Amino acid sequence: MFDTPEAKFAIDAVREAAQLTRRVQQEMCTEALTKGDKSPVTVADFSAQAIVAKRMAEALPEARLVGEEDAGDLNATGEGRETLAQIRHFLEAHIPGVSSDDVCRLIDHGNAKPEGKFWTLDPVDGTKGFLRGDQYAVALALIDGGEVVLGVLGCPELNDQLTPELGGSGALLIAKRGEGAFVTSITGDDDWKPLQVSPCEEVKETRIFRSVETAHTNTGQLGQLSGAMGVEAQPIPMDSQAKNAVLAAGGGEMLVRLLSASRPDYREKIWDQAAGSIVVEEAGGRVTDLDGKPLDFSHGTSLLENRGVLATNGHVHQAALAALKAIEA
């Protein structure tokens, strides 16, 4: 099932991008890093998008990529040029002789229009996790007619059992619409293992994923939701679409992206949800917005028709939707 040109490209590109981002993290995320300095994740973001774009141009020259990054000011300021030099340094091992102009062209290859059939990429999903040396993900998905049909996640700080293992083998996941979700190690030999969500039906035993960073979680509303559901289990702190990976493997039952009171009109970006959503669904779970509507990827770079996101093992989904309706009443 993974021998199609699109699946082969996605597996190889995410594997390479994940290994590249891990190298950036190991070399740049030191204890001496100044608080608030996001330069390592900036370098990793641009480098990963460039390598995915390069491999796409080689394997699928007609394909279109909608990435999170654009080259923008990399050549315009002194800080930008310094960042560009760092990106070139890390890409040199993957693209020998790559020039600054090459780097910018590759990054901007990800500026395609999000319509029809296209790929979407979040080169480093989970900025704070990356900077802490913790969980993050490389997320690539193929969208066709507003539906995610293929998704690949690279989670360098999970192992192939989809439990946290910092500096371990890393996890590579793939899901294809109608064909299931599978995992192998990033460094492995493609010994793919099928994924299945948790069979838990007891709502009180629901393990809810929450972001490590409190700024990313409406903790008050999440507490209200847990109370309304009668949840007794401890939440699982984790960043990025690595949460989707662990949910798909049965390591928890629910994750939710609530709306912030300060940003009630915010809509999720497609690259933040596409790969993770199909991985959960193909492992037997369910993904909707907070109103129970399926996610609609046909409205540009944002999920304009969806409020927030709810992903579960399926068994606790209705209870979660009912609780959401109750606390929003």
From TrEMBL:
Catalytic reaction list: adenosine 2',5'-bisphosphate + H2O = AMP + phosphate; adenosine 3',5'-bisphosphate + H2O = AMP + phosphate; 3'-phosphoadenylyl sulfate + H2O = adenosine 5'-phosphosulfate + phosphate
Needed co-factor(s): Mg(2+)
GO biological-process terms attached to the record: phosphatidylinositol phosphate biosynthetic process; sulfate assimilation
A Pfam family this chain is assigned to: Inositol_P
InterPro entries, per database record: DPNP, Inositol_monoP_metal-BS, Inositol_monoP_superfamily, Inositol_monophosphatase-like, Inositol_monophosphatase_CS
EC number: 3.1.3.7
Sequence positions that bind Mg(2+): 68, 122, 125, 272
Principal EC category: hydrolase
UniProt entry tagged with the keyword Magnesium: yes
MF-aspect GO terms: 3'(2'),5'-bisphosphate nucleotidase activity; metal ion binding
Domain of life: Bacteria
Keyword Magnesium: yes
UniProt xrefs under PANTHER family: 3'(2'),5'-BISPHOSPHATE NUCLEOTIDASE (PTHR43200:SF6), PHOSPHATASE (PTHR43200)
Similarity remark: Belongs to the inositol monophosphatase superfamily.
Protein name as it appears in the record: 3'(2'),5'-bisphosphate nucleotidase
